[in-house]
Write a structure and sequence with these properties.
CATH topology of the domain at 114-236: Nuclear Transport Factor 2, Chain: A
Number of strands: 5
Strand order of the largest sheet: 1-2-3-4-5
Mean pLDDT: 77
Largest sheet: 5 strands, antiparallel
Helix content: 40-55%
Number of helices: 9
CATH architecture of the domain at 114-236: Roll
Order of helices and strands: HHHHHHEHHHEEEE
Strand content: 15-25%
Length: 240
């Protein structure tokens, strides 16, 4: 009886020891069953690295890493075309700048040099009034005005224009008076200018029957500056 009880107790102790030392059933199971492993899709992403052939292939296919052969072939041609265009533009710019410098209209300062424009207008207005006025009683005054205000071919032009007045003045006792009413500077370039002049003229006969006639005149004059004085160099009456 005691022997049977002893065997039972021994088996119980062995069972307790085995229960405490055996691993849990869950721990004995693998993390992934074969079925689970087969159901998971394969990982096709390989880590990039120096020894990874797939990674090397991806880097070769990246556009930023390598330029396509077609672009490498066309790049020199594009650069040559750009160089030609830049050279042509530079030549055109240089030629245009030279033309602008040589163009007389670009040298016209009539609208920008206000002081010089006002000066030439005032002096030429006085000169026109002096040389185109004539008094039969004081012909020397007209001669003095011509010497003072005229130069170049304007000297002969003035003589031709006043030839009839000088011839008839003593007999008819003529007094010619010219007054500039308006003038405009058409062109001004340094010491040369061209002006359009508007004037009123009165011609009075002071003989037995006094008579006065009036007329308006329009003409252009070319002027040159001598020192501080503007003088009339040419007279254009717009007649041929």
């Amino acid at each position: 009886m005691s022997t049977t009880r002893h065997l039972v107790n021994r088996r119980r102790r062995l069972a307790v020891v085995a229960a405490t030392t055996a691993p849990p059933r869950d721990a004995a199971r693998p993390d992934h069953t074969p079925a689970e492993h087969e159901s998971r899709p394969p990982d096709t992403t390989a880590p990039a690295g120096p020894g990874n052939s797939a990674g090397d292939h991806d880097e070769d296919d990246t556009p930023s890493r390598a330029m396509p052969p077609r672009v490498r072939v066309r790049l020199p041609a594009v650069l040559c075309a750009a160089t030609v265009l830049l050279g042509a533009f530079a030549a055109w710019s240089s030629t245009s700048a030279a033309e602008l410098r040589d163009d007389p209209t670009r040298q016209n300062t009539a609208l920008t040099d206000i002081s010089r424009t006002s000066e030439v207008k005032g002096q030429i207005a006085d000169a026109v009034g002096a040389v185109f006025s004539y008094n039969y009683a004081a012909p020397a005054k007209a001669d003095l005005a011509a010497r003072k205000h005229l130069t170049g071919k304007a000297v002969q032009q003035h003589k031709d224009m006043l030839a009839d007045v000088r011839a008839q003045a003593p007999k008819q006792k003529l007094v010619l008076t010219t007054t500039v009413t308006e003038s405009g500077v058409e062109h001004l370039d340094g010491a040369r200018a061209r002006l359009l002049v508007f004037a009123d003229q009165s011609n009075t006969r002071t003989g037995e029957e006094e008579e006065t006639t009036y007329a308006a005149a329009m003409f252009a004059v070319d002027a040159v500056r001598r020192g501080d004085t503007w003088r009339i160099a040419a007279i254009d009456t717009f007649t041929r």
